[in-house]
């Protein structure tokens, strides 16, 4: 069965997903639809940029598609769910990328439908996202694979239980910000040692990119890769010791847990 994909929302994350789908050529541009709540100029820009089908009526979005990606902010999602309930048919699969809104909350506002929570992160904009896929019990294996395939078009996607989604937010959803801070700090240290600002960012960002690729592609434990760099009485072990004295790993662990706890609190607040 050929799916027709709808996007409720046309922001940065929606456009990253759309770009991945268009580039993959798996779905025809006529099979991808987008509706943007309130901001018609953005909708027109997306239609022109990607050549997909823009619709100005939210009801039409659901009439034309069977997989609908809800790409709006959490507060907006809670506002629109009761309204779109009237448009939902048995064949519709809802995919929410809103942080802090549980499958149960979505179901309470829309009724018992096929629902998936997907948590991509911002590197989707450069086709390097990491996305968690958490389905409810009525989503079929084939439908899960369809959604995994969609999110694989701009990075990697992995099916996990919704029970661990708070941890996913801490280790993946919010993590790019931690890495940006780390890159900035690396560069600041290099500038303090005389390197130009532009060169410092280039060296720092490439070092982080290369190190991440080593973990992803070698299959080696990060500690093993770290040991490969730390020579006896060398520069790297001196730096590692300095980081440990500053509670580097404990600080990062606390950051992950802080993000996870905040996501958990958001789920309880709404």
From TrEMBL:
Pathway: Amino-acid biosynthesis; L-proline biosynthesis; L-proline from L-glutamate 5-semialdehyde: step 1/1
Keywords carried by this UniProt record: Amino-acid biosynthesis, Cytoplasm, NADP, Oxidoreductase, Proline biosynthesis
Location(s), subcellular: Cytoplasm
Limits of the Pyrroline-5-carboxylate reductase dimerisation domain: 162-266
Assigned EC number: 1.5.1.2
Entry-linked Gene3D superfamilies: NAD(P)-binding Rossmann-like Domain, ProC C-terminal domain-like
NCBIfam families documented for this protein: proC
Protein name: Pyrroline-5-carboxylate reductase
Originating organism: Tetragenococcus halophilus subsp. halophilus
């Amino acid at each position: 069965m050929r799916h027709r994909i709808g996007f409720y929302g046309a922001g940065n994350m929606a456009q990253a997903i759309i770009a991945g789908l268009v580039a993959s050529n798996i779905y025809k541009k006529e099979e991808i639809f987008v509706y943007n709540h309130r901001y018609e100029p953005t909708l027109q820009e997306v239609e022109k940029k990607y050549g997909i089908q823009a619709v100005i009526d939210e009801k039409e979005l659901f009439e034309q598609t069977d997989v609908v990606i809800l790409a709006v902010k959490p507060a907006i999602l809670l506002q629109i769910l009761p309204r779109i309930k009237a448009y939902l048919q048995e064949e519709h699969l809802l995919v929410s990328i809103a942080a802090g809104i549980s499958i149960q909350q979505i179901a309470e506002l829309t009724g018992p439908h096929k629902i998936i929570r997907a948590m991509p992160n911002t590197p989707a904009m450069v086709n390097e996202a990491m996305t968690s896929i958490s389905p409810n019990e009525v989503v079929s294996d084939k439908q899960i694979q369809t959604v995994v395939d969609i999110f694989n078009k701009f990075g990697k996607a992995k099916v996990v239980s919704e029970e661990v989604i708070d941890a996913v937010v801490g280790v993946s959803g919010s993590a790019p910000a931690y890495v940006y801070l780390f890159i900035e700090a690396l560069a600041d240290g290099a500038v303090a040692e005389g390197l130009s600002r532009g060169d410092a960012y280039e060296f720092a960002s490439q070092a982080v990119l290369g190190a991440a690729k080593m973990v992803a592609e070698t299959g080696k434990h990060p500690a093993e890769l770290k040991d490969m760099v730390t020579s006896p009485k060398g520069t790297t072990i001196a730096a590692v010791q300095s980081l440990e004295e500053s509670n580097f790993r404990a600080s990062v662990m606390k950051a992950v847990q802080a993000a996870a706890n905040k996501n958990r609190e958001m789920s309880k607040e709404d």
